[in-house]
Amino acid sequence: MQAHQRMLDSTPNGLHSGESPLLQTLGLTKRYGDFLANDSIDIDIWPKEIHALLGENGAGKSTLVKAIYGLIQPSAGEIRWQGQPIVLSGPSEARSRGIGMVFQHFSLFDNLTVAENVALGLDGRESFKDMSARLEQVSKTYGLPLDPRREVWQLSVGERQRIEIVRALMQDPKFLILDEPTAVLTPQEADQLFIVLERLKAEGRAILYISHKLEEVKRLCDTATILRGGKKVDTCNPRLETAASLARMMVGGEIKEVKAAAGRKTTVPRLVVNDLSLAPSEAHGVRLEHISFELKGGEILGIAGVAGNGQDELFAALSGERLSKDPGTVVIEGIAAGHLSITQRRKLGAAFVPEERLGHGTAPRMKLSENALLTGHAASGMVHHGFIDTAATLKTVDRATETFDVRKAKRDPEAASLSGGNLQKFIVGREILRNPAVLVVSQPTWGVDAGAAAVIRQALLDLASAGAAVLVTSQDLDELAEIADRIAVMFHGHLSAPLATADATREKLGLLMGGSSLEPKEAAHAVGA
Amino acid sequence: MQLVLEKRAERSNTIALVSPLIAIGLTIVTMTILFAILGKNPFLALHAYFIAPLTDAYSLQEIAVKATPLVMIAIGLSLCYLANAWNIGAEGQFLIGAVAGSWIAVKTQGTDAGAWVLPAMLVLAAAAGALYALIPAICKVKFGASEILTSLMLVYVADLFLDYLVRGPWRDPQGFNFPTTAEFDPVATVPLLIDGGRLHLGSIITLLVVAAAAILLGRTIKGFEIRVVGAAPRAARFGGFNANQLIILTFAVSGALAGLAGIIEVAGPVGHLQPGISPGYGFTAIIVAFLGRLNPLGILIAGLFLALTFIGGEQAQIAMKIPLDVTKVFQGILLFYVLACDSLILYRFKLVSPNRQVASGTH
Fold it and tell me: Among A405, A528, B92, B363, which has the highest number of CB atoms less than 10 A from its own CB?
């Protein structure tokens, strides 16, 4: 291997002694102002290794990976590639050295074909025809079937991820970084991905696998490095750890367990959806097809499904951001509300928490008190004769802060200045403090740290115990299993019949998420205008 | 070393206040260079522009008179801009308001019509300005037509319409063929505040408008709605606010204020309807709105400052033969710097050393 190698061997278990790691960071530090996003991190990644990078949101995983991929320059410390110190001028240099990356958020153009999208990510030295041929060959070799001629908007999320993976593989990387790849996959799709990753590993490549799904890491990864608060906590063999011990290292303490009140009683139906169909509002959107369900007080209904199967459209139809011509399609507290605006629905006792915290759930550059007013102006006594009662809006902020432990720098900061978890606690708190009869919440703990997630889940359970009807849309099956009484699955704008949570095994849900139980004619894409 | 823009965690309120001052400073530096290129002594020119008008009572009154329409129009525009509705056609709404109000003045000319004439003119002018502004607003909401283009194009329609009236049907028979109406009767004239002075009731109305806007934006749910629709459209929809209704409303209000400013100008300082009643008030008000941070009090100050440049420009032309168009250049440069400096509210400059001593340069 490399001729000159400093004998600074910091291998976890001495297995690799004598060789040098493929990639190594030494004291890697990244400072943003006074904030240390990465504090002197040492990590060794060896060939033929799947190395997990574990940590909560804000632990510094993305910063570390961005530095390794050349997207940001470290403030101190160094990166070694095959034993040699390197400074990466940018991602293209990283790629040319053999470092590939698959991002959590895809960068694909919906209206271009698969091949065109891949071509845009390569350096364009080969002809489009050669490139397409190679694309097909690579995708076949690795069992990642793709039709280069299809346009991206026609593809499922799993297929889109395949484009990103194939694009990375076409540069024949020695080292591949994957950022939360299974977040958007069904359990079955995730299994297929693991087979591909095992194969890449067998070919001698190294993989850095970012995740917070501990079972997955235990199953797949050879080594795990755990970050917390920008520092490396430990490097260990995840197979020798338990999920609980890994979680402890990530969080730095025990996570409060979420407890449902025993013997929750269901009461009258508070949210009823009758045969709701809705054309998509934008090109490539999903058409809602004959959705019906009934949700009683005291009950939590979970909606599972891969992102982009109509969950956003369903949320808009329930909240009243999109109206339905037929009032009877959405019934809130016994009143036909399909034609009512979101403000009128709030007056009926409904509350909503959208998936996007910044820009949808809150106006990012406005203060928390103003964001309390955003949804509270309808029915919370914050407005008298058109004038804002500033004291009342501040009181909501204070109550949410106290009840849900929202951490912030001052009494009334801008929404954008809060961390994801704290802002989400504020948003959920803002709605729950209104004592809603019906709460519709989308991805309640998406990108939220474990502590905040536990607070939020507990709040949802308590709200149901107090008699409210709660609808939770989530891609996190574990979350739904933890809090929902029944789980239904969305696929291509259809909603399956709900299963009792006890019967909803991962296998069953996975099949429904892949559309298996639907009739063939309906499985075709609901293509709008 | 490398200079980069770095996003701030929170908007900087200090910079929000200081940014217009930085912009004014940069504009003055640029103007100094420009004056030097024109072969004028920059210091004398700047003195004529900014200091001389402040030294005598006549000019001070004149500044207030000029600021009156600027501030009134800019207040309306600020409501539009806060709500992300881009009314660029205030000049046209100003002219249409002037025309509509003048109609009553022309029709009652020489009759014994009483004190109702002036209030009726003001109301009609505001209504006409509002209706004229609704054309681009409705085109935007119904057909998705760019309100920037449609409102701008309607300026020229209004301009030519006014031109036609004063050269044709409304021309003063005793006016020696000049394109102008007869002088308005006293009942159709905005009263002066000081006998023999220039300051008129319109300035008081403008102050009331500023106060009303400050209350609207700061204390009412409608003002909140305007701000949130502009700042975060999707969050506003989630809050139950209808952006289209707000486009209609803010255009109507800003059109009404521009129309009101138009008739006050015609029935006040000018005294009759003629072409050229506006030295571009409707456009300069855009600069006033932004220089004033879309904030009512800021707009009041910015309006007075821009009025100063109008008066100073006239003085510089008389004293130093500097073309009056230089005033427009000045205003344009000022708007450019104001918008540029605004980036500093959300971003800050930072020197970064890329420490590339080991850079391989393979790419």
Answer: B92
> Does the interface predicted TM-score (ipTM) exceed 0.85?
no
The answer to whether residue B334 is domain-embedded is no
d(CA B344, CA B218) in angstroms, rounded, equals 24
- Is any Cβ of chain A less than 8 angstroms from the Cβ of B221? yes
- Mean pLDDT, to the nearest integer, of B173-197? 87
Interface touch A378/B356, C-beta < 8 Å: no
Residue B9, pLDDT > 70, answer no
Among B7, B224, B238, B358, the strongest candidate for a mutation testing the A interface, having the largest count of A CBs within 10 A, is B238
Query: What pLDDT sits at residue A16?
Result: 57
Find the angle CA(B302)-CA(B303)-CA(B304) to the nearest 5 degrees: 90
What are the chain A neighbours of B232 within 8 Å (beta carbons)?
359, 362-366
A362 vs B232: CB contact, 8 Å cut-off? Answer: yes
Q: How many domains does chain B have?
A: 1
Q: Does domain A269-523 have CATH number 3.40.50.300?
A: yes
Shortest CA distance from B220: residue in chain A: A387
State the 10-residue block means of pLDDT for chain A, 529 residues long.
40 54 92 84 93 86 90 91 90 90 85 90 81 89 87 84 90 91 83 91 93 86 92 91 86 74 79 94 85 95 89 94 93 95 95 93 94 90 92 94 88 87 93 95 86 90 94 91 94 92 88 70 42
**B1 pLDDT band (50/70/90 cuts)?**
low
Strands A50-54 and A223-228: parallel
Separation between Cα atoms, residue A99 and residue A92, nearest integer Å: 9
Written as one string, the DSSP assignment of A94-148 is HHHHTEEEE-SS----TTSBHHHHHHHHS---S-HHHHHHHHHHHHHHTT----T
Q: Does A374 contact B356 at a Cβ distance shorter than 8 Å?
A: no
Least Cα separation, residue B284 to chain A (angstroms): 28
* B177–A contact, CB cutoff 8 A: no
pLDDT at A5: 40
Half-sphere exposure of B274 (CA within 13 A, CB side): 17
**Partners of residue A365 in chain B, C-beta under 8 Å:** 11, 231-232
Same fold, A1-98+173-248 and A269-523: yes
Contact across the interface for B358 and A87, Cβ inside 8 Å:
yes
Beta bridge partners of A228: A231
Domain ranges of chain A: 1-98+173-248, 107-167, 269-523
- CATH class for domain A1-98+173-248? alpha beta
Domain assignment of residue B361, yes or no: no
Q: Find the domain containing B206 and state its range.
A: 63-302
Structure tokens at B110: 């020489």
